[in-house]
Amino acid sequence: VQLQASGGGLVQPGGSLRLSCAASGIIFSSNVMGWHRQAPGKQRELVATITKGGSTNYAGSVKGRFTISRDNIKNTWALQMDSLKPDDTAVYYCNLNQLGLGYWGQGTLVTVSS
Fold first, then answer.
1. CB burial class (10 A; 0-12, 13-18, 19+) of residue 84?
2. Model confidence over 47-88: pLDDT tens digits?
3. Residue 10 — very low, low, confident or very high, per pLDDT cuts 50/70/90?
4. How far apart are CA 52 and CA 33, in angstroms?
5. Of all residues in the chain, what percent carry a pLDDT higher than 90?
6. What is the reported pLDDT for 54?
7. How far apart are the C-alpha atoms of 27 and 90, rounded to whole Å?
8. How many whole angstroms separate alpha carbon 31 and alpha carbon 17?
9. What's the first-to-final CA gap in the chain, in angstroms?
């Protein structure tokens, strides 16, 4: 299984970005897709997850500002990030969990700065 993330960049505070991730390889129907992030000097943390059925889970710090979605046919998922803050600056990693195994994308940098 390989994951390819895209969509990072530089944005001003209050702005929006959309991250995307595409999975290739053997993808089973029951899986959890998600996003994590790692800010400089900090541990990697969960941002959001979404199940095949559409159940979502968000970190408290992004709830109400970020929206995770997925396309079960294309095996892609996205993270819409609105009202971005400087504290959202981090490398964002997409991940896929299936059959007890976790897979990670290469990471995409999001910088929120004026």
1. buried
2. 999 999 999 999 999 999 999 999 999 999 999 999 999 999
3. very high
4. 8
5. 93
6. 94
7. 27
8. 25
9. 37
For the chain, give percent helix, strand, coil, nearest 5: 5, 55, 40
**Residue 10's Cα: distance from chain center in Å?**
16
Per the CB < 8 A criterion, the answer to whether 46 and 59 are in contact is yes
| The pair of three-digit structure tokens given for residue 35, joined into one six-digit string | 């996003």
Determine the Cα–Cα distance for residues 35 and 48; give it in Å rounded to an integer. 5
> Is the pLDDT at 29 greater than 90, yes or no?
no
Q: Across the strands, what pairs with 67?
A: 80
Q: How far apart are CA 88 and CA 111, in angstroms?
A: 7
